[in-house]
């Protein structure tokens, strides 16, 4: 009997193949699956909209190897770009990969594609696009089809004729036709879960009235051709601005499918990060992002940060300072996102053969990760902290440290308080008196002095147990040892890179050269399941022996 059961179970496991994703919908600000459980989009962008109109990298690695590397880096989704004319101009759609590359003089690339991906090289371009989507599906990766531009080529500038409805290459009727065609083409493809209607609206013609007029038309057309997909709308000014939605909603005939997307780079604000004080810049730009887009979450719409990223060599100060700030806010808001970008290099970009992409997670030859410490840092954001159906766990607070992507970990008997996985955090309550109490106990975080380890204590009403969020960034957790002391101490990470200590608060004044990032923490909401099985010793430690150890 049990042997039979085992056999049944085994054959079930063999037959069972997780479906890449059934249709998604929205429940207030959350994207959810058919059972109502949150699905967090943790995507990476993959470019297929340049002159050759083929997904990048197929001259470097076999398609399936690329899909597998996307999975191994923890992404569950790809925002896959396409140029409008690929869908609307049959002369382009039926051009084979080989013909497209030879017409651009990309002879070496085509020889390499022949070698790495022989099955793709003589497919018509639109079929090659489909083959990539299908392979992503076979690897359980969701796909968002992103109409990135009309005329194939690098995007985006104010004057490239692709920026707004009515521009030289942006005929609204043709655009609606192209969206309809792509939506229909993928109406039986379960892993295509969303469509970004148009990337980065911009340029001198942009205006709010036409935005509503055409985006509503495009959304209706997509939904009519494929009612399964999420309909994702970009804002104005390179998708930096959705503020107009604060007083006028989009009118659609359908519900529970609408998502807004936002792009946020360091260079969205010029050189502000490098030339200002990081605390001030983080504070003011975060407020601006909340005014221009973040408010949508409170209005009950999902917000998808569909492009953000940095030069992963770590040499760009503007990018480096921005990253800690955006990761803090993205963790707190627990938004859906798509990193820019997957490709380590391009066949041909802006006239340059084989251009390297330093924002790409893959190396130039697409065979390894460009910067594994960068990936580690964003990895905790790849799973949801909150949302419907995730767990029965009572929501709690965690202290997230954007500089490492780690959280203040659950305190154990043997170790001082330290950074660790956000999946095994010290679950806290942040009380009205501003103490950080270990959930379900009476003990709380307490400062012991400059350079000293942070401990647990049981007297939570004294000054050393009150933690205020200070500085312009509101990311410093500050305390005072005694009520009368004038000096503040801030939560910090020791030079070992993991032990939680308190040190003099850094960079509170308007200093452009000072880097506060190690002292940046965000108190964020989480309902990830927490391990509850404390040993008796741990229990005693947590509840009785707090002051001895
Ligand atoms: C590229 O290949 C085409 C077709 O095989 C050939 O006619 C052309 O001369 C080649 N160009 C170069 C630069 O090798
Ligand atoms: C899918 O779209 C095609 C056109 O591309 C259409 O013929 C077909 O009826 C659609 N199927 C569904 C299930 O909507
Ligand atoms: C990865 O990023 C870190 C932090 O920005 C940087 O210090 C390091 O040099 C980078 N590594 C590589 C291989 O580029
Ligand atoms: C703190 O200051 C108050 C007056 O501001 C004084 O009454 C009290 O004695 C001081 N306490 C300590 C411990 O110095």
From TrEMBL:
Query: To which species is this protein native?
Result: Dendrobium catenatum
Instruction: Name it.
Output: Glycoside hydrolase family 5 domain-containing protein
Say which domain of life the source belongs to.
Answer: Eukaryota
Keyword Transmembrane helix attached: no
Q: One biological-process term from Gene Ontology?
A: polysaccharide catabolic process
Keyword list, A-Z: Glycosidase, Hydrolase, Signal
Q: What are the recorded GO MF terms, alphabetically?
A: hydrolase activity, hydrolyzing O-glycosyl compounds
Indicate the secretion signal residues. Answer: 1-21
Query: What range(s) does the Glycoside hydrolase family domain occupy?
Result: 62-343
In which family does this protein belong, per the annotation?
Answer: Belongs to the glycosyl hydrolase 5 (cellulase A) family.
Which InterPro entries would you find in this protein's record?
Answer: GH, Glyco_hydro_5, Ricin_B-like_lectins
